[in-house]
Amino acid sequence: MEKYILSAIIFSTPLYPFRFSLLGVPTNAFEIILYLGFLAWLLFYGKDRLRKIITHPWTVFPPRHVLIIALWSVWGLISALVNPDVLSGLGYWRAFFVDGLLIYIMVVASRQYSLVKKTLILTGGVVALVSLFSACGWHRANDGRWLGWYGFDVSASANYLSLFLAPIVSLAVIGAIKYQKIWRVVSVVAALVMAVALAGAQSRGAVVALVGSLALGGAYMLFYHLPFGGKIKHKTFLFAVFALAMAVVVFYFARPDFNASTNAGRVVTSNNVRWEVWRTTLEVIKEKPLLGAGLGNYQDYFTTLTKGRVNYDEFIAPFALSAHNLFLHIWASMGGLALLVFVWWVIILLRPHFRAPTKEALMPLVFFLAILFYGLVDTPIFKNDLAILWWLAAALMTSGNAEKNYD
Q1: Is residue 169 part of a domain?
Q2: Per residue in 304-337, pLDDT tens?
Q3: Is 51 inside a domain boundary?
């Protein structure tokens, strides 16, 4: 029964566009399924675990993770209160922090890591399959890019589809290699269908996420599981240099061309807008270095800051839903301390896999790295479904954690 509850919650993640109010509180179909599922989990399986989580959390989670997750969650609440529209800020905090934390607790407490990976692959395959109808003109963006399922969201961008699918494609590719029999077939088919959907979404960020995560996954296996490279710290240094080189390549291809004509095409325009957003985000950070503009308040603050500037009102501010860079967005919306906490969390999740590398870590690693690589050119956490993917990635990274003394 526990497996069914978790599977149903993960599978329902894309249902968030179906929004409504319940007793005057804005919510959505996914959250209702999540909360009912969590209550069912507590009732049948989680009462004893919850008591441990509250009184002795280090017996359920890796000890270092308890502090960092508490800091991240509390700072998210503070950032929500910084938002001039406090109720809106609290809504974002619930969606990006509380909802994901509930799933994280269920996954880590129940140790259902294999189930999570397989359910994610199935979910991605179904979302991609639905998006294939976009080829028939259903739920397409104005420029012809596929929206797929996310066409039900009135404010959807074609990037919504790619942001959700790209990390799952990485997971499915490794699943096609590692799994046997039926799950190998499922992974291959899901990866192919998702690849077609990504092609329809025409997102370069998805290419960055896929190529980056799979290349680094290959490097992980090469550096750590072949007899060369010396000590672990030397291999880690080589891996870090390779990762940095790939990040530099990403920024090279995302470079702007401000001398291009207005008819230069979507790629050039996208690059130029992205660089202007990054540059202006640094202004936001300069004005709000400690606490940021407030959770969920980034675009409003950006728009007010740039009001009246040439081209901003028409061509830049409407596209500044986020900073188009995960790390800049955290700093600009939540403040410098939040960025430090987030980077610390990333290090804590990655470190055990490099101190005691295992082949079993490859699937969670590529999933996790795909989100971070996408984060170089977009913001793949601060949206309902993407926040859930992040918390699931954190849970899966915990599954391969070398610090097993908390069991």
Answers
A1: yes
A2: 999 988 888 888 888 888 999 999 999 999 999 9
A3: no
61: nearest Cα among 107, 103, 113, 109: 109
Q: What phi-psi label fits residue 102: left (phi over 0), alpha (psi between -120 and 50 degrees) or beta?
A: alpha
Q: Is the pLDDT of residue 240 over 60?
A: yes
Q: What is the overall mean pLDDT for the chain?
A: 88
Number of DSSP helices (H) and strands (E) in the chain, helices first: 17, 2
In the structure encoding, which two tokens stand for residue 403, read together? 């610090």
Q: Are 406 and 127 in contact (CB under 8 A)?
A: no
According to DSSP, residue 140 is labeled: B
**What is the total count of domains within the chain?**
1
Q: Confidence band (pLDDT; 50, 70, 90) for 404? A: very low
Neighbours of 283 (CB within 10 A): 13
Contact between 296 and 250 under an 8 Å Cβ cutoff? The reply is no
* Sign of the four-CA dihedral 38, 44, 49, 51: positive
Range of the domain at 91: 2-32+63-256+321-402
* SS3 call for 182: helix
**140 φ, ψ to 5°?**
-110, 150
Does the residue 300 lie in any domain?
Answer: no
pLDDT at residue 103 is higher than 90: yes
pTM of the complete model: 0.92
Hey, which residues does 27 pair with through a beta bridge? 20
Domain assignment present for 335: yes
Are 186 and 122 contacting, i.e. CB atoms less than 8 angstroms apart? yes
19-46 pLDDT, tens digit each = 999 888 899 999 999 999 999 988 887 6
Helix (H), strand (E) at residue 322: none
Its sign, for the CA torsion 130, 134, 139, 142, is: positive
State the helix-helix crossing angle for 99-110 and 63-82, rounded to 10 degrees.
Answer: 170
Q: Whose CA is closest to 164, among 127, 199, 110?
A: 127
pLDDT in tens, 137-175: 777 777 788 888 888 887 778 789 999 999 999 999 999
Q: Which residue, 174, 162, 243, is CA-closest to 203? A: 162
Separation of alpha carbons 187 and 168, rounded Å = 10
